Amino acid sequence: MMKRYDLIMAIAFFSLTFIGSLVVLIVFSFDHRADEPPLIAERETIDLGEVSHQQIISGHFVVKNQSRYPIEILRLLRSCSCTSVSFVRGELLPNSTTQIDYEFDTGATLGALVAEIKVLYVYQGDSANRARMLPLTLRVQIVEGQNEASRER
């Protein structure tokens, strides 16, 4: 009689442990939907419109951590030397935002120009700890005109 009770208790214990482990696994597996990246931009593309050549245009992108875990922005990659970028280093906590500042130098060129900025980051909710990228784009149409010192957008 006592052995049968111990066997039933052991089976109940292991069953509850197994079910609890499955629940934890499911919760962590569905922490973040695959179709929603953890880092998003308020605007992924900024169209600066028509501007005169030889200007420097300043502005910023706003990015948000929409996940439950911190994000570390590792680096900003630029597609051309016409753009300089900066950001505040450190962890971006869940549901918080930060600015990525840019200065765009139109130089002496004319015509349509596209500059890309890629935000290289690590999402700490990813067990593989792999780097991810968020692409941001600046578009401008550079026209001949009077040289204005600089302008902000």
Tell me about this structure.
The chain has one helix spanning 2-29, and strands spanning 39-41, 45-52, 56-65, 71-78, 83-87, 91-92, 97-105, 111-123, 131-143, 151-152. It is an alpha+beta fold. The chain folds into two domains: 1-30; 39-152, Immunoglobulins (Immunoglobulin-like). Strands 1, 3, 5, 7 and 10 form a five-stranded mixed beta sheet that branches. A five-stranded mixed beta sheet has the order 2-9-8-4-6, with no helix packed on it. The radius of gyration is 25 Å and the shape is rod-shaped.
Give the termini separation.
Answer: 81 Å
Low-confidence stretches: none
Broad structural category:
alpha+beta
CATH topology of the largest domain, what is it called? Immunoglobulin-like
Q: SSE order, as H and E?
A: HEEEEEEEEEE
For the largest beta-sheet, the strand count, sense and barrel status come to: 5 strands, mixed
Mean pLDDT: 84
Radius of gyration: 25 Å
Strand content: over 45%
